[in-house]
Design brief:
Elements (H helix, E strand, L loop, with lengths): L6 H11 L3 H17 L3 H17 L6 H17 L3 H11 L6 H6 L5 H7 L3 H11 L6 H12 L13
């Protein structure tokens, strides 16, 4: 999905008007990303933390995507702020989700492996891939991407970044 200006306000409106928990979860993983892509780091952080807070009290699989994406967005915010240690911790936490139908099939809309490996943080990317291997179906791609990162290359994630 290509994030467009104004999209965040539409997600906020939809989220506040929705009463169905499953539909709220779908919107909740998109809100932090939409805010981040809009350059609104403050609200990106607020929405990411909201996703993590909801997951503490609700262990539904529907929150696996929001938790995964919340950690990715918090990691991206950390990178913007120059906090590589925090970014690495968030990437590791993102991979520790139980997975969801979308994550199991398509992986992540984000390219955390590209961002981190491009910054020379190969070990954390490999750890992230290993964590994702517990839920992601396409082990072959993970192995290919891991080999690329080990070789100092940035994997081509292709269509796995869009779902």
């Amino acid at each position: 999905m290509i994030w467009q200006p104004g999209l965040m306000s539409q997600y906020v409106l939809a989220y506040s008007a929705t009463t169905n928990d499953e539909e709220k979860a779908i919107l909740l993983w998109q809100l932090p990303t939409a805010a981040f892509e809009a350059g609104d780091l403050k609200n990106a952080r607020v929405w990411a933390l909201e996703a993590l807070n909801q997951a503490v009290t609700n262990q539904s699989w529907t929150l696996a995507d929001p938790v995964h994406h919340a950690h990715i967005v918090l990691g991206r915010i950390a990178l913007v702020n120059g906090d590589v240690t925090e970014a690495k911790a968030r990437l590791a936490q993102a991979g520790q989700t139980s997975g969801s139908p979308a994550l199991k099939s398509f992986w992540s809309k984000h390219d955390p492996g590209k961002r981190a490996s491009g910054k020379g943080e190969r070990d954390i990317v490999i750890k992230y891939f290993e964590e994702c291997a517990t839920f992601w179906k396409d082990q072959g791609k993970l192995q290919q991407w891991t080999a690329k990162v080990r070789a100092g290359e940035i994997p081509a994630f292709g269509g796995n970044l869009f779902y």
